[in-house]
Amino acid sequence: MRLYLINPSNPLVSIVRIRESRWNRYRVWKPLSLMVLAGLTPPEWEITIVDENLGVPDYPAMPRPDLVGITAFTAQANRAYEVAAHFRRLRVPVVMGGIHATMCLDEVMERVDSAVTGEAESVWPQVLEDTQNGCLKRRYDGGFAEIDSVPPARHDLLAGGYALGAIQTTRGCPMNCTFCSVTAFNGAHYRQRPISDVVREFQLIREKHVLVVDDNLIGTRPEHIARAKDLFRAMVQANLRKEWVAQATINFGDDEELLALATKAGCRGVFIGFESPTPEGLLELGKKFTLLKGRDFRASVRRIQRHNILVVGSFIIGLDNDTPGIGKRTAAAARQYGLDNLNAMFLTPLPGTRLWDQMKSEGRIALDTFPEDWKYYTLTFPVARCKHFSLDSIIEEMISCDRDFYSMRRILRRVWGNLWRRRKPLIALVGNLSYRSNLRLNCKAYADFKCQHDKSHYGVSEVQVGTEG
Ligand code: B12
Ligand code: SF4
Q1: Measured between alpha carbons, how far is residue 449 from residues 365, 375, 443, 454 in Å?
Q2: Which of 2, 7, 323, 436 has its CA 20 to 30 A from that of 390?
Q3: From the alpha carbon of 286, which atom of ligand 2 is closest?
């Protein structure tokens, strides 16, 4: 039995445009979901994983499969349907799963033979068996997996072409921020894989550098932090010789022992969602945890960096609480916190989130011709109407934010600072230049976007700008 597992591309995702910006080679990451599915697949299946981000293969020239499995974030949905249509024309059954299939089930079911919602561990073997017996069901509900039943991903199946390997050690998040799909998809219960499973899986990864995909590697409660420390100790003991980057909340900077262990275990960078430079913005997004205790962000960031860990901070622009000048204010906050990189995104209502429900009920989703418009749901386009900004002005805010933070003068100053403190200046330089080169690509993408989606889409906010802005 032959199985193709496919990760569809979205050419509008600037970080995957390797040909246009060679720095992006360092920013294409493996589709871990498909490697986990492969790990759940019995040996009688011959598996090929296709990641279209590395190039779209000549499907007609490939041998006919017995089943095609497609994964998709919302931004990949259109291409997913094109790929599905190709194989369905050949009468090959197509099953789709992942976040978009879960959040937009009806839309997906119209376009594939079978849809899998939630985490696949409990249902994937059944999907395969039903395919073999010719009785594939229209829908399977995976729910939340038993965390100790997550198999090691098949790292051997996507061996070349990436700068980083990928691994997951926890699932779920109790925070339920308004804009994020994780609590709805993976649940509010923070589930941690057995430490021995994680260490064994790390040993299967060939790449020296690894992305830990967890939404929050360390968690928020004392028992989560204790587990993170145990994990790091086990990684040190196993002498993995890996260097890795992860996502965490700002409390990562609270605990010197945790930081020391993380560095020893190979942590070299952390991605932290600061989201907004103002307390009102954080409240609007439901990111209350970051507001705790009148925290000094600069001191937290410095403590992390003193352990030789780079800090990338993420911010969202276009909140109802944002007023003109937010782009520059965001860049200033990122500089004041001492971040090594700034990742600014437009506020985007993703299906299944609280923000989606709110914006939909307020009639503020501007790009709503689905599925075609899903390709813009990359967080790099303003797909919804802002309260205080027109289409032009929110794009200008984003450009001014990036231009300010990634001016050559400021990049050199940051790299010099890293050199001075003997912290990986080369990595900081590559990271900064990668973002800077995408600025050019983004400006072109905004211009195309504005041509196609003129003011008529944003009519409401054009009026509001005059009255409220
Ligand atoms: C790592 C990650 C990335 C990486 C790499 C992604 C990749 N190539 O796979 C990078 C940084 C590139 C990335 C980019 C983006 N990401 Co991202 N990312 C994640 C993250 C943190 C983990 C994903 C992961 O690997 N999980 C581990 C695997 C094992 O779990 P899984 O993917 O859910 O797969 C399981 C099930 O979903 C299911 N399943 C999945 N696929 C399939 C297919 C079949 C056939 C079946 C049966 C089952 C199945 O089975 C798997 C095992 O249980 C998630 C958050 C999260 N917790 O999921 C966000 C997340 C997926 N990302 C998100 C977004 C918005 C993006 C971006 C659009 C914007 C951005 N900059 O963040 C870009 C766009 C990328 C693109 N190609 O279009 C959103 C997606 C929401 C949505 N509705 O689409 C998420 C959920 C985060 C959030 N805040 O809401 N991301
Ligand atoms: S943004 Fe982070 S903290 Fe908030 S719900 Fe998503 S994963 Fe949890």
Answers
A1: 16, 12, 10, 8
A2: 436
A3: 4
